[in-house]
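Forgive a beginner's question, but might I ask you for the amino acids of a protein and the tokens describing how it folds?
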Amino acid sequence: MTPSVLQIGFGGFGPAHLKAWTALGLGGHLHVADPSPAARDACRRHGLPDERIGADYEAFLDAVDLVDVVAPTDRHGAICDRVLDAGKDLFIEKPMTATLAEAEHLAARVRAEGRIAQVGFYFRCHPLARAARDRVRDGAIGDLRYLSGRFLGFKRARNDSGAVQNDAVHFIDLFNWLTDAFPVRVHAVTRDHFGRGREDFALLQLTYPGDVIASIEVGYIQPGRWNDVFVPGARATKEIAVCGGAGALEADFVTDSLVVHDVRHELRDGAWRPVFGDRVEPHFGAVDPVDVVTAELRQFLDCVGRRAPPEAGVVNCGVRVARTLDAVFAAAERGMPVDLEP
């Protein structure tokens, strides 16, 4: 039986989700709810009929099998609670919830009620990230030593979250995924230059088991290098480096380029010198964001069909990321590192 889907929210990332559901053959079984008249008009322009568009998501809950939450972050907790009350499996765009308490509450309900709930960590399904992970896992760059990420640029500051929850969360999860571990120590500096009660700049340092270090820089005050495909008029930099004992990787998620360095240091004539091997640049072509979202939702549908916990599940992944975010804010407030359970 073909499942019917309710997409709650049609903001900036909403059209990508609608197109992804359509690519999966579920466009004719998709309902969209958004309180904004402008968002509902946009749904109509995408070809959705009036009877499957509404302002109140609760009006559709009994008519659907699955729910896709693309609403503002500060509404996630209440919406997900109501979706679980209705006995539905759900996909939740990152960040999972606005607070750690909401994340732990949601995970407890999902576990107790046997629901399938996946968090939309976009980069896990990005071809560059998957290629990087394959190379890390097959030992191509040796033992991991350091990861760095820059997710920044001049763009609109969202009202429902700051730069940490909106942008840094992507690379926190990506680094967890690449290292196959969770941070054990967090240090952070944040600034609210706009005076709106949410950070517009942050520097994060994460320590992973084995003394692997990661740094993440996010913000809206630093110049980005490229036009942002998600935010019209914005300039963005979204890049990571993954460094090991036998090489390094550079991935640029705006230009869709990956560089693999075969390089190590050797002690020669009393000095540690780089010894260079091949420099490889695999070709990926332009990556369509809709294809990445489609891959995420395909994973979700597969887990629903098998009643299997998602890799990026609420219980095994979402709560751990929420704890890291909570530690980031605590470390920034205290001006000192915060330790986490391994």
Summary: The first helix runs from residue 14 to 23. The chain has a mean pLDDT of 96.
